[in-house]
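ARCHIVE ENTRY
Sequence with per-residue tokens
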Amino acid sequence: MNEQPNIAGKPVLTIARKRILNLHSGFEEKLLCDGPTFTAGDACVYRCGFCYVPSMMQAKPPISTMLEKSGHSFEDVVIRREKPLDVLREQLFHKNGKRKFTDPDDKRVVYASPLVDVAATLELCRETMEICEMILENTAWQIRLLSKSSFLPIIANALDKYRARMIYGVSTGTLDDLLAAAFEQGTALVSKRIHSLHKLQGEGFRTFGMICPSLAYATPAGYHRFAEEAAAAIRVEQCEHVWAEVMNVRGESMIRTVKSLKDAGYEAEASELFRVSTSPDAWEQYARHTFAAHCLFIPPEKLRFLQYVNKDNLDWWRAREAYGAVLLGNLIHK
């Protein structure tokens, strides 16, 4: 473990990892990829209250050991993986130097990143470009990149000769710059993200939408208004697909998000999110209202609404798979 200079005020730790590429990730269930993902980090530049990564990673060795030695908490550091290109090369090539993935018809989609933002800084953009280029040069795969930055056009232009195999999207859980800043610290303004998406679309790059995680609203009209405005903002007609989701509840993500909203003066938004989080019935209505609103503005063949199900709501959501519901959770695997 090494500590490097800060990024965005966070100390940077580096860690040796055996993999950059994960060929069999759970993100296939979310239809974001065909199994493979890649990541060059374990802790992000950004601080998002709803982020699920801390609950997944901070207790796992060697992360927990590294944090203990460094004296830092997970949310207060950036963790990068050592020599990501060297590690990736070992995954893509046999020891004799021959490529492992040579089938020209193997056009699987790779998703990045499941853990950290791929374009949070210009330095990380360059790292992502280099990783993408190595994958694109040595496989026939496609790559889907998601970011909360406004830097994706930089990556797109650098990889222009591969444009048919790259798909770009930005996360847009709210369209209000100030509201987003309340629980997404360090990210680009939502308006700048949207502008970068429009730039990509205007230049003919492949794009997708990511309307999540979205807040709860006090009335059906609130859900309707947000879904309509979000669909217009991301230009649904120019997106290949649109993912949408309510808040993830893992670890202390809900507590952090509600507190962040309150601290920023968004009492009504915090109160409504807290209300739905304390009642299974209210949470289910929150999810159903969100889904129904998106159905009004996103064609079913494009909508991919991610929903964790249980035995009580399985039948309701299963009946709506044809309209864009994507069912997740342990029950689906039984």
